[in-house]
């Protein structure tokens, strides 16, 4: 038996790196999803605490907590999530990021209000329903407007 025929033990083999598994777009999506989960926890906990313990109306609480999550996702997006940036000016980039986020906030408030006021759902259930729509809007708008590779 030659040396090349000897099977190495699993302890000496390395697992494939994240870069060898899937496309860069998939990696960005996974990182954005992770960052969004952290922001979502802040958003939902903030919504609940402000509404239940400070008696802030749920739509006002939702806006405040959403904006806290927006800050978390912005910081994660520029330092960790996206590999390319299409806008050089940090002020312009944040402005556009904020506009996309405010559109997401509008979608969030609309879904939250409709499902809570007209469908009679508990506001936290309405919030969970809005998360899926807002996440999809935010990811694709940010990916293709702010963090696309320069053409």
- The unreliable regions are none
Largest sheet: none
Distance between the termini: 54 Å
Secondary-structure element string: HHHH
The amount of helix comes to: over 70%
What is the overall silhouette?
A: elongated
Task: Return the average pLDDT rounded to an integer.
Answer: 86
Which class best fits the helix and strand makeup?
mainly alpha
Q: What portion of the residues fall into strands of 2 or more residues?
A: under 5%
By DSSP, the count of extended strands is 0
Q: Tally the helices: what do you get?
A: 4
* Number of separate domains: 1
What is the alpha-carbon Rg in Å?
A: 21 Å
Topology:
Blueprint: H1 24-53, H2 58-81, H3 90-118, H4 123-146
Helix pairs in contact: 1-2, 1-4, 2-3, 3-4
Care to describe what's here?
The protein has 151 residues and is mainly alpha-helical. The chain is built from 4 helices and no strands. The protein has helices spanning 24-53, 58-81, 90-118, 123-146. The longest helix has 30 residues, at 24-53. 23% of the residues are buried.
């Amino acid at each position: 038996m030659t040396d090349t025929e000897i099977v190495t033990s699993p302890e000496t083999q390395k697992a494939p790196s994240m870069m060898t598994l899937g496309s860069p777009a998939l990696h960005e999506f996974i990182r954005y999803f992770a960052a969004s989960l952290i922001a979502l926890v802040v958003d939902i906990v903030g919504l609940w605490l402000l509404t239940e313990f400070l008696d802030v109306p749920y739509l006002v609480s939702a806006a405040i907590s959403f904006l806290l999550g927006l800050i978390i996702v912005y910081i994660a997006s520029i330092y960790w999530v996206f590999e390319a940036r299409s806008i050089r000016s940090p002020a312009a980039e944040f402005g556009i990021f904020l506009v996309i986020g405010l559109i997401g906030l509008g979608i969030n408030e609309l879904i939250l209000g409709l499902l809570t006021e007209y469908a009679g759902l508990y506001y936290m259930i309405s919030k969970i329903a809005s998360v899926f729509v807002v996440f999809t809007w935010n990811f694709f708008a940010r990916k293709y407007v702010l963090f696309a590779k320069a053409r």
